[in-house]
Amino acid sequence: MKALAARRHDRRAPAMLLLLALLLVGAVYAVVAPSSAEAVTKTATADDITAGEKLFQANCSTCHGPSASGTDSAPSLIGVGAAAVDFQVGTGRMPMQMSGPQAQAKPVQFTDEQIGQLAAYVATLGAGPAIPTAEMVDPALGNPASGMALFRTNCAMCHNAAGAGGALSQGKFAPNLWETTPTHLYEAMLTGPQSMPVFNDANLTPEEKRDIIAFIDEQGEGSPGGLDLGSLGPVSEGLWAWVVGLGLLLGISVWIGAKSS
Amino acid sequence: MSTPHDHDRDLAVHGDGHSELPARFDNPGLHEHQPRQADIDPKTNKRVERQVLALFTLSILGTIAVIWAYFALPPGDTVGSMRLSNLVLGLGLAVCLLGIGIGGNYYIKVLMSNREYVEERHELRSSDETREIAVQMLKDGGEDSGLTRRGALVGAGVTALALFPLSILVPLIGNVGEDWNVRKFKHTMWKKGTRLHTDPTNRPIKASDVTIGDVWHVIPDGLDKVEHGMLDEKAKAIVLLVRMDPRDIKSDQSPEGETWGHEGIVAYSKVCTHVGCPVALYEQQTHHLLCPCHQSTFDVADSCKVVFGPAKRPLPQLPITVDDEGYLIAQSDFAEPIGPSFWERATK
């Protein structure tokens, strides 16, 4: 073991160990990659409207105005529908805690029941898209192949070909879609939150929206090739090849060229 | 260039005032041979031998694992089974090749004799006699072939050989880019009355179905009927359709007396005027359209003017209107060639 012990003190050893550890972590991650979360189902009744209004006045009216008709700092909520509320509040984007390029997803601030009450109240302000039913967003009922064709044309330019997300202008970005629940995906397409445009039911029919959800659901299974490196394309793959791949080759070359003790 | 005297003085200057350098260096010879740990210590020797043996055995096991995985773990139909199959095949192959490579190198470095040997080079120059014979043979051969007397023949032969590559090069270069007809870059499939269809579902678009904040990816009606070069036609004709509050529209590209939009619905070419990437990252709130390749940003609310990035021209607008049934149709083709610049762009 002396030869090995001597090499352990080599100053290249930590770098090699780090590379090996990276490889190991990657391989383990590829095997035990997390799968996507399950769908959320909820029901809202007309009785909740009063409770919803109270919640609205306490939490939302500062920016959106006491009558929800909007202020200089926030848009009107009349006619945005229950789907917009369920998406914005259900993903933690609202209530917004600080201003910035865009409202970011964060831990959800309300219970499912409270979100339902808020959505019920906002839905009474004006006609708008409703929260989709569980069947409308069930990935198992969608056709992922058709979803891929639609995703490629309508979504991939911002959200990346595999839904990994991507940058927009001036600090805005299109988020990763893998952890988003099917209901929230559907609501985002329907309501066009923030920078995202609207894809109404004439543009993408409810069945086509479900196909897209099925395609995104397929991405949760990971890449058949193994490590997907975040599915970010040439940036992460190039970094991996140049740093890890060439680094290993250099390390091996140095080892082959070094004299034995 | 310099006399011996000058030369000496130069050396003395560079020698930092030390004693003068010798006229000729002696060959320092090889380093003294340093025995390795495994050369002296039989225990180390044995241990390294066992390690190399283990590495080669590992390689054999790797090969067996690859063959086993090929039969026992087919890729199957699910992502999980494909990933497992690829992972085991890849790891097996890595172990099999790394075992041979590392084992072989380890053996050569540590166990194989590393005593230095010196082999003197033999003289490269042939003997005078051989050289004379060779020259004479060339001369005789030249005489024999008769080429030394037939200058015109040699000239013609060399010319024929020199021209021959043109028979390959001219068609090869001529075929680059299929053909040299640049006129087709100036026109697209759009013409008066062509309906706007959705991409890829190929449905006509009713103006009343387009809501504010929408973005539609549009292809011309009849694209699916194109038999030759469908993708080329599609690449030229793709259009992005958005609707915004008409009060938000600062300007569009319609000339005096014409209306190229329809109640806040505007359609612009999706081909970037920089190098032709599809520009489709539409930010609904700012009405900015971002090109993913080089971050050129266009303001859809203001004639698609360039607000950032390397593009130099606005995206061309497709003049649209509605037909009797309320479907969106084109008024004409684009008024200017779409996409990046090319030499003949300005000519008609």
Brief characterization of the structure:
The complex is a heterodimer of chains A (261) and B (348). Chain A is mostly helical and 261 residues long.
Give a topology summary.
The complex is a heterodimer of chains A (261) and B (348).
Chain A: H1 2-8, H2 13-31, H3 48-59, H4 61-64, H5 81-90, H6 112-125, H7 144-154, H8 156-159, E1 166-167, E2 173-174, H9 182-191, H10 206-219, H11 234-257
Antiparallel strand pairs in A: 1-2
Chain B: H1 4-14, H2 37-40, H3 42-72, H4 79-110, H5 128-145, H6 151-163, H7 166-174, E1 196-198, E2 215-220, H8 230-237, E3 239-243, E4 265-269, E5 281-283, E6 288-290, E7 297-299, E8 305-308, E9 320-322, E10 328-330
Antiparallel strand pairs in B: 1-2, 2-3, 3-4, 5-6, 6-7, 7-8, 9-10
Main location (chain A): membrane
EC number (chain A): 7.1.1.8
Subcellular location (chain A): Cell membrane
Structure report:
The complex is a heterodimer of chains A (261) and B (348). Chain A is mostly helical. Chain A has helices at residues 2-8, 13-31, 48-59, 61-64, 81-90, 112-125, 144-154, 156-159, 182-191, 206-219, 234-257; strands at 166-167, 173-174. Mean pLDDT of chain A is 84; it is low at 34-42. Among the domains of chain B are: 37-110; 184-346, 3-layer Sandwich (Rieske Iron-sulfur Protein). In chain B, helix 3 (42-72) runs antiparallel to helix 4. The longest helix of chain B is centred in the first third of the chain and has 32 residues, at 79-110. Classes of the chains: A mainly alpha (261), B alpha+beta (348). At the A-B interface, helix 2 and helix 7 of A face helix 3, helix 4, strand 2 and strand 5 of B.
CATH third-level topology of the domain at 48-219 in chain A: Cytochrome Bc1 Complex, Chain D, domain 2
**What percentage of residues of chain B falls in helices of 4 or more residues?**
25-40%
- The general outline of chain B is extended
The topology string of helices and strands of chain A comes to HHHHHHHHEEHHH
Question: What is the CATH level 1 assignment of the domain at 48-219 in chain A?
Answer: Mainly Alpha
CATH level-two architecture of the domain at 48-219 in chain A: Orthogonal Bundle
Side by side, the strands of the main sheet of chain B go 1-2-3-4
Helix and strand content put the structural class of chain A at mainly alpha
Measured between the Cα atoms of the first and last residue of chain A, the distance is 13 Å
SSE-based structural type of chain B: alpha+beta
Shape of chain A: elongated
- Spans where pLDDT lies below 50 across 5 or more residues of chain B: 1-13
Number of helices of chain B: 8
What's the N-to-C terminus distance of chain B?
Answer: 68 Å
Binding site for heme c 1 (chain A): 60, 63-64
Protein name (chain A): Cytochrome bc1 complex cytochrome c subunit
Keywords (chain A): Cell membrane, Electron transport, Heme, Iron, Lyase, Membrane, Metal-binding, Repeat, Respiratory chain, Translocase, Transmembrane, Transmembrane helix, Transport
GO molecular function, one term (chain A): heme binding
